[in-house]
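Appendix B, example 12.
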Amino acid sequence: MIHKKVFDYLQKVYEDHNYKMILLHGTAGGGKTYLVRNFLKDKKGFYFKCLSQHPPVQIRRFIRVVRRQYPDFESDITWKDFLTNLYSLAKKENFIVVWDDFHFLYKITQDILIPMERHSVNAPFTIFITSSYPQANFISFRFEGFTQDRFHQIELKPLSFKEFRDYYKDMDPMRQIELYGITGGVARYMEWIDPNLDLFDNVKENFISPTRLPYYDPCSVLRYEFHEPSTYYSVLQVLAYHELKIGDLSHQLNLQTHNLTSFVDRLREMKLIGRVVPGNSTNPKVTRKSKYMISDMFLYFWFRYVYFDPEALHMLNPDIIVKHLKEDYNTFIDHIVVEISKQWLSSLTDPFVPLLTSPWWDYETHSVDIMSTDYKKAIFGDIFIDETLYTKQMYRNFVESTQVVPFKSKLRQKHYYFISKKGFTPDLRRIVGNRKNVQLITLEELVEII
């Protein structure tokens, strides 16, 4: 099961009667509903799907849900009475209440938290689900005075590549990388994968099919979150092709920086884009040498290839989109391998425990694909996605280029990791020999290491 650890945790706290309220939040499509659906299978409980409906319409629907199990449950009541009666039932029987997409209900019935707070001591085992990070923060704030035996929150994150590949152990390593790149470890998108199809057929048959689009087009999903979706979509479209500083992004969109900042902050708050700092930054939170990038891998795929050609999508001509992906294949793979390498290097304990893992660049022509450091030691990584072998001269050029990376104090150790799709020339392998500070890694070996 996807997110088995979280499932087991919910099971434990339910059996121990510990947490009365749990806030389960994360990105849209991250598997929250799937997880709770399986959690409820052998338990008594109510699942309420919160929608953008007027309160009288929504409460009648919720009452119908309760009356399927309790026909005598009062039907013509207010929200306050609905919760009072529901919690009175909870005193008699042990059941679970799930509020899915709770932020929609809160938007139209903001005083609903008041009776929830009032009845929290005797409340049933309650799970709030939300994919809206601002609302998750607000709910957490409202309950921050509760002790841990009454309220707890869990962020359901996309699977790391290591967790992702555990579901596809028999799959070719290259295909594991490719399919992680279009799903980002998000449960909803993983359900679309056909392990027997290659990347391009999966995209054509499963990710941009006309039967799926009306329900899962991310532009339609995100429209509920944004008041001015066109600006947000434009930011994502530009960032799908460039990692940019805020000033460069405003120039690309022909917007003043101060007008753009709120849109960028909102996308960051929702964890759809991320801020990237140079890999030698000693104070990453405040450095101005930062750029923005799409952190959601499915959105990166969508805005780079699908939203780039919406005409082809809606005229049912997916071959245009697939052709674009094939022509851009090496860049697509490079983007994924950088993310996978970042996950791997961030988790290392040997040769040191990194404090920062990130690409490095300066304002000229120098860059390092990925590096990790604890500011006393550093790993410099070069990623080569091409159909040729990595050569001795490329090795020398890279090592020399890393000399310009500035650190406040001299590094005690320098390590060099080279990741190549096709491998390395024999003369390079001879030069490297048994050097402990140099690793030559093919993509297949990278998958196995992780």
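The two ends are 20 Å apart (CA to CA). The mean pLDDT is 88.
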